[in-house]
Design goal:
This protein has nine helices and seven strands. It has 242 residues and is an alpha/beta fold. Helix 5 links the parallel strand 2 and strand 3. The longest helix is centred in the last third of the chain and has 20 residues.
């Protein structure tokens, strides 16, 4: 990455600590606001991720940057033995735990506070690992990818869902306007943290995507890498294995 984007530019905290603070601040209304901002389309993107994950019938699944657990809850339909949701934000996990308890899935999904760049798991632990809208928040992208590869079983599936930038007219221009102007305004109107959604849009605009990010996965030792833009390229699904 050519530029490191942090939520609070005047803060002396590192990106990791800033991201944790930001998500703690917006955790209570994150789900509702996220549905509004994405027009609910993010649900269909996550369903595509689950479909990819389902092909190898994984029994041990790790969902990194799990947030409030939307993807983890969806993947529970695959009937794995265990899903672990990992996140650095205790606030987001608290909301997720409430959703999991309501769904009566406490025995299936475990939510833990943890750092994606230093995970408390043995080598080759998981059949499948997912990250939805989280890799661009890594403080050290390559270190995070290295850790993911370490805890993924040989032959295991790694799937990323992340924002990207449309490249064709008029979607490129429309998306740029929406993320640069409309999204931050919505965030400021309805979020406790006035900076958070400016950061989320800015980080989305600067994060590498498509073939560029696919090459980063290859560089970090992943094989069978593929990527599929969704909804005119406003997001991309990447899949790889070890």
């Amino acid at each position: 990455m050519s530029k490191i984007i942090k939520p609070y530019k005047d803060s002396k905290l590192g990106k990791k600590e800033q991201v944790a603070t930001m998500f703690n601040n917006i955790s209570k209304n994150y789900d509702d606001l996220n549905r509004v901002i994405s027009f609910g389309i993010d649900i269909s993107w996550r369903k595509k991720v689950v479909k990819i994950i389902s092909k190898n019938n994984p029994q041990q699944i790790l969902d990194i940057a799990t947030g409030t657990g939307d993807l983890a809850l969806m993947m529970s339909a695959l009937q794995p033995n265990k899903i672990i949701g990992l996140d650095i934000s205790e606030g987001m996990l608290a909301v997720g735990k409430e959703k999991i308890a309501k769904a009566k899935l406490n025995d299936k999904i475990e939510m833990i506070v943890g750092d994606s760049e230093n995970m408390p798991f043995e080598d080759s632990t998981f059949d499948a690992i997912t990250v939805s809208f989280g890799v661009r928040n890594f403080a050290n992208l390559e270190k995070g990818l290295s850790e993911i590869r370490r805890v993924l079983k040989p032959g295991g599936t790694f799937v990323i869902l992340e924002t990207s930038n449309p490249t064709k007219f008029p979607f490129k221009q429309g998306y740029k306007f929406y993320t640069s102007f409309i999204l931050p305004i919505i965030g400021k109107l309805f979020s406790k943290d006035k900076i958070a959604y400016s950061y989320l849009s800015e980080s989305a605009n600067y994060f590498p995507f498509g073939e560029t990010f696919n090459n980063i996965l290859k560089k970090n030792g992943f094989i069978n890498t593929e990527y599929t833009p969704v909804t005119f390229g406003v997001a991309t699904i990447y899949s790889a294995s070890k």
